[in-house]
TrEMBL record:
The keyword Signal applies. It comes from Alistipes onderdonkii. Residues 1-25 form the signal peptide. This is Vancomycin high temperature exclusion protein. One of its GO terms (cellular component) is plasma membrane. Keywords: Signal. CDD domains: YdcF-like. Residues 67-172 form the DUF218 domain.
Length: 215
Protein backbone atom coordinates (compact mmCIF):
# COMPACT_ATOMS: atom_id res chain seq x y z
CA UNK A 1 0.00 0.00 0.00
CA UNK A 2 2.82 2.39 0.90
CA UNK A 3 4.55 1.70 -2.42
CA UNK A 4 1.33 2.42 -4.30
CA UNK A 5 0.82 5.70 -2.44
CA UNK A 6 4.40 6.70 -3.13
CA UNK A 7 3.96 5.97 -6.84
CA UNK A 8 0.77 8.02 -6.94
CA UNK A 9 2.48 10.90 -5.16
CA UNK A 10 5.34 10.89 -7.66
CA UNK A 11 2.88 10.73 -10.56
CA UNK A 12 0.90 13.67 -9.17
CA UNK A 13 4.08 15.69 -8.66
CA UNK A 14 5.26 14.93 -12.20
CA UNK A 15 1.86 15.89 -13.58
CA UNK A 16 1.94 19.18 -11.70
CA UNK A 17 5.41 19.97 -13.05
CA UNK A 18 4.38 19.15 -16.62
CA UNK A 19 1.24 21.29 -16.29
CA UNK A 20 3.28 24.21 -14.97
CA UNK A 21 5.77 23.89 -17.82
CA UNK A 22 2.96 23.71 -20.40
CA UNK A 23 1.24 26.81 -19.02
CA UNK A 24 4.49 28.77 -18.87
CA UNK A 25 5.60 27.72 -22.35
CA UNK A 26 2.22 28.55 -23.89
CA UNK A 27 2.16 31.96 -22.23
CA UNK A 28 5.68 32.79 -23.35
CA UNK A 29 5.04 31.71 -26.94
CA UNK A 30 1.88 33.80 -27.23
CA UNK A 31 3.47 36.86 -25.63
CA UNK A 32 6.54 36.76 -27.84
CA UNK A 33 4.67 36.11 -31.10
CA UNK A 34 2.15 38.91 -30.59
CA UNK A 35 4.45 41.69 -29.38
CA UNK A 36 3.89 44.66 -31.68
CA UNK A 37 0.51 43.28 -32.83
CA UNK A 38 -1.70 44.62 -30.04
CA UNK A 39 -2.40 48.30 -29.46
CA UNK A 40 -3.71 50.45 -26.62
CA UNK A 41 -4.61 53.60 -28.58
CA UNK A 42 -6.99 53.93 -31.55
CA UNK A 43 -4.49 56.24 -33.24
CA UNK A 44 -1.86 53.49 -33.32
CA UNK A 45 -4.07 50.72 -34.69
CA UNK A 46 -3.73 49.94 -38.41
CA UNK A 47 -6.99 50.45 -40.29
CA UNK A 48 -8.95 47.35 -41.27
CA UNK A 49 -12.24 46.88 -43.03
CA UNK A 50 -13.69 44.90 -40.13
CA UNK A 51 -13.24 44.47 -36.42
CA UNK A 52 -13.94 41.28 -34.48
CA UNK A 53 -15.51 42.08 -31.12
CA UNK A 54 -15.26 39.06 -28.83
CA UNK A 55 -18.38 38.51 -26.80
CA UNK A 56 -18.95 38.19 -23.10
CA UNK A 57 -21.95 38.44 -20.78
CA UNK A 58 -23.57 41.76 -19.92
CA UNK A 59 -23.69 40.87 -16.22
CA UNK A 60 -21.79 38.63 -13.81
CA UNK A 61 -23.48 35.87 -11.80
CA UNK A 62 -24.46 38.24 -9.02
CA UNK A 63 -26.36 40.38 -11.53
CA UNK A 64 -23.89 43.26 -11.38
CA UNK A 65 -22.64 44.83 -14.64
CA UNK A 66 -19.72 42.99 -16.21
CA UNK A 67 -16.81 45.42 -16.64
CA UNK A 68 -15.30 43.22 -19.37
CA UNK A 69 -18.48 43.66 -21.43
CA UNK A 70 -18.70 47.45 -21.12
CA UNK A 71 -14.98 48.02 -21.61
CA UNK A 72 -15.03 45.96 -24.81
CA UNK A 73 -18.07 47.78 -26.14
CA UNK A 74 -16.48 51.15 -25.35
CA UNK A 75 -13.31 50.10 -27.16
CA UNK A 76 -15.20 48.88 -30.23
CA UNK A 77 -17.20 52.11 -30.44
CA UNK A 78 -14.03 54.19 -30.07
CA UNK A 79 -12.34 52.23 -32.85
CA UNK A 80 -15.31 52.66 -35.16
CA UNK A 81 -15.65 56.39 -34.50
CA UNK A 82 -11.89 56.81 -35.06
CA UNK A 83 -12.39 55.43 -38.58
CA UNK A 84 -10.16 52.41 -37.94
CA UNK A 85 -12.87 49.89 -38.88
CA UNK A 86 -15.86 50.20 -41.20
CA UNK A 87 -17.76 47.22 -39.83
CA UNK A 88 -17.92 45.25 -36.59
CA UNK A 89 -18.56 41.53 -36.30
CA UNK A 90 -19.71 40.60 -32.80
CA UNK A 91 -18.93 36.96 -32.11
CA UNK A 92 -20.27 35.32 -29.00
CA UNK A 93 -22.46 32.75 -27.32
CA UNK A 94 -26.19 32.43 -27.99
CA UNK A 95 -26.44 28.81 -26.94
CA UNK A 96 -29.20 29.00 -24.35
CA UNK A 97 -32.54 30.71 -23.94
CA UNK A 98 -32.38 34.28 -22.68
CA UNK A 99 -28.62 34.56 -23.18
CA UNK A 100 -27.40 36.44 -26.24
CA UNK A 101 -23.95 38.02 -26.12
CA UNK A 102 -23.93 39.34 -29.72
CA UNK A 103 -27.35 40.99 -29.46
CA UNK A 104 -26.58 42.55 -26.07
CA UNK A 105 -23.35 44.00 -27.42
CA UNK A 106 -25.06 45.27 -30.56
CA UNK A 107 -27.62 47.17 -28.47
CA UNK A 108 -24.84 48.69 -26.39
CA UNK A 109 -22.92 49.73 -29.53
CA UNK A 110 -25.96 51.31 -31.14
CA UNK A 111 -26.42 53.25 -27.92
CA UNK A 112 -22.88 54.56 -28.43
CA UNK A 113 -23.61 55.82 -31.91
CA UNK A 114 -22.49 52.88 -34.05
CA UNK A 115 -25.01 52.38 -36.90
CA UNK A 116 -26.87 49.07 -36.79
CA UNK A 117 -26.07 48.50 -40.47
CA UNK A 118 -22.35 48.50 -39.64
CA UNK A 119 -22.78 45.60 -37.20
CA UNK A 120 -22.85 41.89 -38.01
CA UNK A 121 -23.71 39.19 -35.51
CA UNK A 122 -21.99 35.83 -35.20
CA UNK A 123 -24.09 33.68 -32.90
CA UNK A 124 -21.74 30.69 -33.03
CA UNK A 125 -18.66 32.20 -31.41
CA UNK A 126 -18.73 29.75 -28.53
CA UNK A 127 -14.96 29.91 -28.15
CA UNK A 128 -12.28 32.36 -29.22
CA UNK A 129 -10.88 29.75 -31.60
CA UNK A 130 -14.27 29.42 -33.30
CA UNK A 131 -14.67 33.20 -33.56
CA UNK A 132 -11.33 33.64 -35.32
CA UNK A 133 -11.87 30.75 -37.74
CA UNK A 134 -15.40 31.91 -38.56
CA UNK A 135 -14.16 35.44 -39.24
CA UNK A 136 -12.46 34.02 -42.32
CA UNK A 137 -14.65 31.04 -43.22
CA UNK A 138 -18.03 32.74 -42.76
CA UNK A 139 -17.37 36.47 -42.98
CA UNK A 140 -14.58 36.33 -45.57
CA UNK A 141 -12.07 38.46 -43.64
CA UNK A 142 -8.40 37.55 -43.84
CA UNK A 143 -7.26 40.83 -42.27
CA UNK A 144 -9.08 42.23 -39.25
CA UNK A 145 -8.80 43.87 -35.83
CA UNK A 146 -9.67 41.89 -32.71
CA UNK A 147 -11.25 43.86 -29.87
CA UNK A 148 -11.06 42.57 -26.30
CA UNK A 149 -8.78 42.88 -23.27
CA UNK A 150 -5.05 42.56 -24.02
CA UNK A 151 -4.59 39.04 -22.61
CA UNK A 152 -7.52 37.85 -24.74
CA UNK A 153 -6.40 39.75 -27.83
CA UNK A 154 -2.97 38.14 -27.73
CA UNK A 155 -4.46 34.65 -27.83
CA UNK A 156 -6.86 35.56 -30.65
CA UNK A 157 -4.11 37.22 -32.69
CA UNK A 158 -1.87 34.19 -32.16
CA UNK A 159 -4.61 31.89 -33.44
CA UNK A 160 -5.07 34.11 -36.49
CA UNK A 161 -1.33 34.11 -37.20
CA UNK A 162 -1.16 30.33 -36.90
CA UNK A 163 -4.00 30.05 -39.42
CA UNK A 164 -2.29 32.38 -41.89
CA UNK A 165 -4.51 35.39 -41.19
CA UNK A 166 -3.40 38.99 -40.69
CA UNK A 167 -4.87 40.17 -37.39
CA UNK A 168 -4.03 42.88 -34.90
CA UNK A 169 -5.63 43.60 -31.55
CA UNK A 170 -7.06 46.74 -30.00
CA UNK A 171 -7.00 46.48 -26.22
CA UNK A 172 -10.08 47.35 -24.22
CA UNK A 173 -9.48 48.57 -20.68
CA UNK A 174 -8.81 45.73 -18.27
CA UNK A 175 -10.54 45.20 -14.92
CA UNK A 176 -9.05 45.26 -11.43
CA UNK A 177 -6.64 42.40 -10.79
CA UNK A 178 -8.75 40.93 -7.97
CA UNK A 179 -11.99 41.08 -9.94
CA UNK A 180 -10.37 39.42 -12.95
CA UNK A 181 -8.39 36.74 -11.09
CA UNK A 182 -10.61 33.84 -12.18
CA UNK A 183 -10.63 35.06 -15.79
CA UNK A 184 -6.84 35.29 -15.84
CA UNK A 185 -6.50 31.75 -14.52
CA UNK A 186 -8.86 30.49 -17.22
CA UNK A 187 -6.79 32.36 -19.81
CA UNK A 188 -3.63 30.48 -18.83
CA UNK A 189 -5.40 27.17 -19.36
CA UNK A 190 -7.07 28.42 -22.55
CA UNK A 191 -3.67 29.09 -24.10
CA UNK A 192 -2.63 25.49 -23.54
CA UNK A 193 -5.89 24.27 -25.06
CA UNK A 194 -5.35 26.63 -28.00
CA UNK A 195 -2.12 24.87 -28.90
CA UNK A 196 -3.91 21.54 -28.79
CA UNK A 197 -6.62 22.89 -31.11
CA UNK A 198 -4.05 24.20 -33.57
CA UNK A 199 -2.04 21.00 -33.45
CA UNK A 200 -5.10 18.81 -34.12
CA UNK A 201 -6.58 21.17 -36.73
CA UNK A 202 -9.82 21.50 -34.80
CA UNK A 203 -12.81 22.97 -36.63
CA UNK A 204 -15.51 25.21 -35.10
CA UNK A 205 -18.62 23.64 -33.61
CA UNK A 206 -20.67 25.29 -36.37
CA UNK A 207 -19.82 26.83 -39.72
CA UNK A 208 -22.68 27.62 -42.12
CA UNK A 209 -23.39 29.83 -45.11
CA UNK A 210 -21.02 32.70 -45.96
CA UNK A 211 -22.01 36.24 -44.97
CA UNK A 212 -20.84 39.08 -47.19
CA UNK A 213 -19.86 42.13 -45.18
CA UNK A 214 -20.82 45.50 -46.59
CA UNK A 215 -23.23 44.16 -49.18
Amino acid sequence: MKKWLKTMAWAAAAGAVLATVAVSAAGYAVQRATDGRVYASPGEVPANRAGLLLGTSRTVRSGRPNAYFYNRVDAAAALYHAGKVEYLVISGDNGRKGYNEPQDMKEALVGRGVPAEAIYLDYAGFRTYDSVVRMEKIFGQESFTVISQEFHNRRAVYIAQALGLDAVGYNAADVAAYAGMKTRLREKLARVRMFMDLWTGKTPKFLGEPVEIGK
